[in-house]
Amino acid sequence: MKKMQAATLLGAGIIFAIGVLAWPGASLAKEVESSMARGGLLYDKWYKEIGEKAPGTKHPLYPAEGKYAKKAGDTWRCKECHGWDYKGKDGAYAKGKHYTGIMGIHGMAGGDPGKVVALLKDDKHGYGDKLSDTDLQDLGNFVTKGQVDADKYIDSATKMPKSGDKAKGAAVFNTMCAKCHGMDGTEPDDMKKSLGKQMGNPWEVMHKIMNGQPDEEMPALRALDRGVVMDVMSHITTLPKKP
Ligand code: HEC
Ligand code: HEC
Fold first, then answer.
1. What's the CATH code of the domain at 130?
2. Would residue 175 count as lying in a domain?
3. Paired strand residues for 86
4. 155 and 140 in one domain?
C-alpha cells in the first residue's frame, strides 16, 4: 500500500512538472530581449520588417529642407530623424545629408514604454494606423530598455570601437556571420557595401549586430554579452574595405 502511494505521488509530481515546463507563459513571459530586438528592426525600417509598402508622402515631422524630403519612405524611418546612435541632432546626424535638427530618443531610455506607444500614436508621429499594438510595444521596449549608450562603445572622433578583442571577434565572425557574409564580409552579393566598408558608420553596424536586419534571417546578438558585440566589431575593422 505504501509503495502504491509513493508511486502515485511521484506520478502526480512528474505530471505537475511537465505541466509547468510546457505551459508557454510560464518561463517565456519575462523575456524582453526578443521584443527589444524586434523594436530595433522596426526602428531601422518598420515597413520592410512588417512587409508593407513605404508611405508615399513625407512624414509630417520631417523638415521640408531636409535632404531626404523627396524620398517619402525614408522620412518615415525612426533612424532617419533620431539617428543610428539614438542622439539625433546631438550625435552623428549633427551635420551632413541626414541632418534634420531633430532631437534624439536617448532621453527616454529608462522611461515608460507606454509613454512611447502613446507618443507614436499621436497625430505628430502618426504611426497609430500603420503599426500594430505588438509593433508599438516592441518599439516602446526598444526605446526605453534596448538602447545602448553609443559613446560608451564607439569613439565618435575615430569611429573605432572603444573595446573588443580582434582574435575572439574573428572566431565569432567566422563561425556565426561568415555563413552569410563570407569570411571577408563581402557577401551576400546584393549587399551594397562590404562589412569592412560599413564601418564608416559604426553606429549602424552596432545597431544591426544587436538587432539584426529587417526582414532577413540575420540573428540578433542582443542577448549576448556586449563584449562579444565589441569583439565582432573590432574584427570587422580588419576586413577588406572593398565597396
Ligand atoms: C520625420 C521625423 C521623425 C520620425 C520619422 C520619427 N520621429 Fe520621433 N520625434 C520627432 C520629433 C520632431 C520629436 C520631438 C518631439 C515632437 O515634436 O513630438 C520626436 C520625439 C520622439 C521621442 C521623444 C524623445 C524625448 O526624449 O522626448 C521618441 C521616444 C521618439 N520620437 C521615437 C520615435 C520612434 C520610435 C520612431 C519610429 C517609429 C520615430 N520617433 C520616428 C521626429 C520623428
Ligand atoms: C542568416 C544569414 C545572416 C547571418 C548569419 C548574419 N547576417 Fe548580417 N545580414 C544578412 C543579410 C541578408 C543582410 C542584408 C544584406 C543586404 O543589405 O542586402 C545582412 C546585413 C548585415 C549588416 C548591414 C549591412 C547593410 O548593408 O546594411 C551588418 C552590419 C551585418 N549584417 C553584420 C552581421 C554580423 C556581424 C553577423 C554575425 C554576428 C551577421 N551579420 C550574421 C544575413 C546574415
1. 1.10.760
2. yes
3. none
4. no
Closest Cα to atom 41 of ligand 1: 78
Decide whether any atom of ligand 2 lies within 6 Å of the 98 Cβ: no
* Domain final residue, candidates 96, 118, 147: 147
Q: What is the pLDDT of residues 172-221, one digit of tens each?
A: 999 999 999 999 999 999 999 999 999 999 999 999 999 999 999 999 99
DSSP SS3 for 155: strand
Total domains present in the chain: 2
Q: Which domain holds residue 135?
A: 33-147
Its pTM stands at 0.91
* Exposed/middle/buried for residue 221 (C-beta within 10 Å: 0-12, 13-18, 19+): buried
pLDDT bracket for residue 242 (50, 70, 90) = confident
> Of 90, 115, 147, which residue sits at a domain end?
147
Q: Is 118 in the pocket of ligand 1 (CB under 6 A)?
A: no
Q: 69 and 109 share a domain?
A: yes
User: Grid coordinates standing for 42?
Assistant: 522596426
C-alpha cell at 101: 535638427
Report the distance separating Cα 130 and Cα 52, nearest Å: 9
Q: Quote the CA–CA distance of 125 and 140 in Å, as a whole number.
A: 14
Tell me which residue has its CA closest to atom 26 in ligand 2.
191
For ligand 1, the distance from its centroid to the CA atom of residue 137, given in whole angstroms, is: 15
User: Is 206 within 8 Å of 85 (Cβ atoms)?
Assistant: no
Query: Is residue 58 situated within a structural domain?
Result: yes
